[in-house]
Amino acid sequence: MGMVEPVRAENTSPTGEPPQAAAQPRVDSGDTAWMLMSTGLVLLMVPGLALFYGGMVRRRNILGTMMHSMVALAIIGIQWFLFGYCLAFGKSQGGLIGWNSDYLGLNGVLSDQVFPGTHIPIFVHCMFQGMFAIITPALISGAFAERVRFGPYCLFSLLWATLVYDPLAHWVWAVQPLASDPTRTEAAGWLGRMGALDFAGGTVVHIAAGFSGLAAILVLRKRLGYPQHAIHPFSMVLTLLGAGLLWFGWFGFNGGSALGSNGLAGAALTASQVAAAAAALSWMVVEWLHRGKPTALGLASGIVAGLVAITPASGYVPPLGALVIGLIAGMVCYGSVLLKPYFQYDDSLDAFGVHGVGGFLGAILTGVFASA
Predict the structure, then answer these.
(1) Given the DSSP bridges, would you call strands 97-99 and 91-93 parallel, antiparallel or unpaired?
(2) Which member of 116, 134, 219, 267 has the lowest number of beta carbons within 10 Å of its beta carbon?
């Protein structure tokens, strides 16, 4: 015998709730746990970057260089919480900038209120995206390391995050609920509406940081003695340790950009691992052929180059595509670093050569290898 479905009031859903309540997405504990972990992993990249950069400068500049990375946790951490998140992910104003007074200091946000199109709280989304905003100006500091005083750098990082990073993040990543189905979203920023693909920050983080660094070094003076005299790094131990922490943290950077604990996060993590390993190998092989031996700096730089290049593509390409992207990135970024003396610009720690060139290359190759 078939079972007779009980009579249900017309103003309730199959779960017995009003239809408006049933349509509201709820916080998922698994997704939230993964995003909390990813936020911590990306935060770990900041001291990783401080070690990576600190080992590459001369001894007298180690602490100053590391401070440039670490201070972003304080300055941009407060800026993002107070108004940066509102500008980047608030209600879109013509696709150019965001604004939502509830997001100012998160004063009007409830603890269980989910970010549109996800099952994670807005609080968690804000903190995760805030880690991206923090590390980006820290990346720029590598371009002009050993040449900028601490005070002016602090002011620069605050202004750059407000005037460059926040609008760019909105252009690419801002979303808005669909009128026909509030549980789904569509792109709200003008670049996103044009179909720009940037899974985890190839454009917003790496291209922006790399080319901003290039603009800065074209204005600033070169370091004394460069390029006539070689400037040797102080500690490759610090740099290798920093590269390892960056690699570890990048699993949260790219995997967390799936905004949930799902297959997409696993695919992004896999692509990141494959690309980093491939770029490290290709950089070392090219350096071996060119200089007669590989170096610790080459290994560390290759790892970062692969991670940078796969960032925009990590959620869109299959593992074999990630392998090719990593192999190409290691060779191209190595070549870009070699060009510094010929073009007479002083990119102290290769921020443009690795992040600018690597991010641009990754964005182009995303279109080549992206799959449905």
Answers:
(1) antiparallel
(2) 219
Would you mind telling me the total number of residues written for the chain in this entry?
Answer: 372
219 burial class (0-12, 13-18, 19+ CB within 10 angstroms)? Answer: exposed
pLDDT in tens, 298-323: 999 999 999 999 999 999 999 999 99
Q: 175-177 and 97-99: which strand pairing?
A: unpaired
Query: CB of 65 within 8 A of CB of 72?
Result: no
Contact residues for 361 (Cβ-Cβ < 8 A; gap 6+): 309, 325, 328, 329, 332, 333
Q: Helix, strand, coil proportions of the chain in percent (round to 5)?
A: 65, 5, 30
Residue 228: its pLDDT value, please?
Answer: 64
H or E segment at 30? helix 29-54
Residue keyed to tokens 């400037």: 231
Cα gap 76→151, rounded to integer Å: 15
Tracing tokens 């003008």 back to the chain, one arrives at 190
Three-class secondary structure of residue 144 per DSSP: coil
Q: Name residues of the chain where pLDDT drops below 70.
A: 1-24, 225, 227-229, 372
- The whole-model pTM stands at 0.92
Whether cis (ω within 30° of 0) applies to the bond prior to 227 is: yes
26: tokens are 């709820």
Q: What angle do CA 42, 48, 50 make, to 5 degrees?
A: 120
Q: What are the structural domains of the chain?
A: 28-369 (1.10.3430.10)
Q: In the numeric block, which tokens belong to residue 83?
A: 């108004």
Q: Note the pLDDT of residue 14.
A: 42
> Which residue matches tokens 């990593």?
326
The token pair at 51 is 């070690």
Concatenated DSSP letters of 215-276: HHHHHSPPPTTTTTS----S-HHHHHHHHHHHHHHHHHHHHGGGSSSSHHHHHHHHHHHHHH
The whole-angstrom separation of Cα 212 and Cα 359 is 13
129-162 pLDDT, tens per residue? 999 999 999 999 999 999 999 999 999 999 999 9
